[in-house]
């Protein structure tokens, strides 16, 4: 069950050192997310461009998969799909053994080692990459 | 055209003579002989190495066996990359046979995806095909197919059945009469010299003036370092299926005839051999 959280759309770089994982940049949150380097942070309103190191991702839930309170995220281009899956699972408090599938264009599930930057280049529109996530296989 | 159809067959039936040797630190009950096999260039390692696995497991104890993985000169081989791509990228300048080392321990989690069953290979393969069609036809052609057509594509690959595969795949190679080619060309360019896994971008097969874009046009646009300057020395080979197509080749033609079964052009940029 996803916890209720304040979704604060600020870009606050995490000051704490840490391992991998993604930033919880909301200072109001009650969720003890592990602080880490800001590879993923809540979305900004900047226009996306070729030279930006981060790209905007919009996450949409499919079926009865829990909905993320914060849907728009700025993600480093080199972040992989697996990294994104791990992040969403942590954010939604899914157990490690639960599966999560991510789809592009509501048609294909990219390989876990695919970089989001490449997907954005090829399948992004209106300055963002829309990804659907689901606990079961939605589009085969 | 007869010649072009021959190209499809030559690509499909390409083979790489390979020698599989068990890693020396694996624990065996008796000596493990190397195993020789002709690997299909267009397939995937974990799809075609059941016999290799059986051969080595015969000399090992059950408790010493976990997931099989392959390595060439210290580099773990990604099973989800086509075999021909792996060979061209990593071993094409070395003498045959391709010497691959087989492991059953210490799976390199950081480098390889797990492959617990053939279903995983099928899912990966179908996903690549869907991605390719998203680029070529906005997914219209693949989405119009029935489930049994998708199954036939997979079964054709799995059972090395050229006719079975191409009966369906030919539909993915068509384009509207009023166009001169696909919407975008599905391609990936690999180099061992960079950090990035591969280059993949949107690229149209036809220019605004109706001219067909060539392989050279693609490289100039997305990987200019791959081609030598006009009067410079040729530093790299641009390789697909073990050959160097002329840079003047229309990209649309390459996409229709030299794609892998997943409908992607997997292109290797490798240093020019110095012999």
UniProtKB/TrEMBL annotation, chain A:
Topological type in the membrane: Peripheral membrane protein
Region (Disordered): 1-52
UniProt keyword annotations, A-Z: Acetylation, Autophagy, Cytoplasm, Isopeptide bond, Membrane, Ubl conjugation pathway
Transcription regulation listed as a keyword: no
UniProt cross-references to InterPro entries, sorted A to Z: Atg12 (IPR007242), Ubiquitin-like_domsf (IPR029071)
Biased composition regions of type Low complexity, renumbered to the chain: 25-42
Database matches in PANTHER family: AUTOPHAGY PROTEIN 12, UBIQUITIN-LIKE PROTEIN ATG12
Quaternary structure annotation from Swiss-Prot or TrEMBL: Forms a conjugate with ATG5.
Name of protein: Ubiquitin-like protein ATG12
UniProtKB/TrEMBL annotation, chain B:
Gene3D superfamilies: 3.10.20.620, Autophagy protein Apg5, helix rich domain, Phosphatidylinositol 3-kinase Catalytic Subunit, Chain A, domain 1
Calcium is among the record's keywords: no
Localization (cell): Cytoplasm; Preautophagosomal structure membrane
Highest taxon, organism lineage: Eukaryota
Membrane topology, record value: Peripheral membrane protein
InterPro entries, alphabetized: Atg5, ATG5_HBR, Atg5_HR, ATG5_UblA, Atg5_UblA_dom_sf, ATG5_UblB
Annotated ranges, domain Autophagy protein ATG5 alpha-helical bundle region: 119-174
Keyword line: Acetylation, Apoptosis, Autophagy, Cytoplasm, Immunity, Isopeptide bond, Membrane, Ubl conjugation
Statement: the UniProt record of this protein carries the keyword Ubl conjugation: yes
Domain Autophagy protein ATG5 UblB, chain residue ranges per copy: 184-269
PANTHER family associated with the record: AUTOPHAGY PROTEIN 5 (PTHR13040:SF2)
Family listed: Belongs to the ATG5 family.
Job of this protein: May play an important role in the apoptotic process, possibly within the modified cytoskeleton. Its expression is a relatively late event in the apoptotic process, occurring downstream of caspase activity. Plays a crucial role in IFN-gamma-induced autophagic cell death by interacting with FADD. Involved in autophagic vesicle formation.
Protein name, as recorded: Autophagy protein 5
Organism: Propithecus coquereli
């Amino acid at each position: 069950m996803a916890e209720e959280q304040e979704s604060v759309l600020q870009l606050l770089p995490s000051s704490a050192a840490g391992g991998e994982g993604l930033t919880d940049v909301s200072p109001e949150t009650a969720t003890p997310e592990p602080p880490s380097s800001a590879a993923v942070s809540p979305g900004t309103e900047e226009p996306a461009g070729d030279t930006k190191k981060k790209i905007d991702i919009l996450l949409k839930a499919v079926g009865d998969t829990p909905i993320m309170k914060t849907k728009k995220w700025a993600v480093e281009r080199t972040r992989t799909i697996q990294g994104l899956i791990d992040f969403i699972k942590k954010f939604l408090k899914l157990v490690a053994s639960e599966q999560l599938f991510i789809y592009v264009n509501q048609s294909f599930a990219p390989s876990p080692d695919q970089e989001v930057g490449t997907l954005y280049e090829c399948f992004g529109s209106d300055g963002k990459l829309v990804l659907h996530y689901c606990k079961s296989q939605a589009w085969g | 055209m007869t010649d072009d159809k021959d190209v499809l067959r030559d690509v499909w039936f390409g083979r790489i003579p390979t020698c599989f040797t068990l890693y020396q630190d694996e624990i065996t009950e008796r000596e493990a002989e190397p195993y020789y096999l002709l690997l299909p260039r267009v397939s995937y390692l974990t799809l075609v190495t059941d016999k290799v696995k059986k051969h080595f497991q015969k000399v090992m104890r059950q408790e010493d066996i976990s997931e099989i993985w392959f390595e060439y000169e210290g580099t773990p081989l990604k099973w989800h990359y086509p075999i021909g791509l792996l060979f061209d990228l990593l071993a094409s300048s070395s003498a045959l046979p391709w010497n691959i080392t087989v492991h059953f321990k210490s799976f390199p989690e950081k480098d390889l995806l797990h492959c617990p069953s053939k279903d995983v290979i099928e899912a990966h393969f179908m996903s690549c095909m869907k991605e390719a069609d998203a680029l070529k036809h906005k997914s219209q052609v693949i989405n119009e197919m029935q489930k049994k057509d998708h199954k036939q594509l997979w079964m054709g690959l799995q059972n090395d059945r050229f006719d079975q595969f191409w009966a369906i795949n030919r539909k993915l190679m068509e384009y509207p009469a009023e166009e001169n080619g696909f919407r975008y060309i599905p391609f990936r360019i690999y180099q061992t010299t960079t950090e990035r896994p591969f280059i993949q971008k949107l690229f149209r097969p036809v220019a605004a003036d109706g001219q067909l874009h060539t392989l050279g046009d693609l490289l100039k646009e997305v990987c200019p370092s791959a081609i030598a300057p006009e009067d410079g020395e040729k530093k790299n080979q641009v390789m697909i299926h073990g050959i160097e197509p002329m840079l003047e080749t229309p990209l649309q033609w390459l996409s229709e005839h030299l794609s892998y079964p997943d409908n992607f052009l997997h292109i290797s940029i490798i240093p020019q051999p110095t012999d």
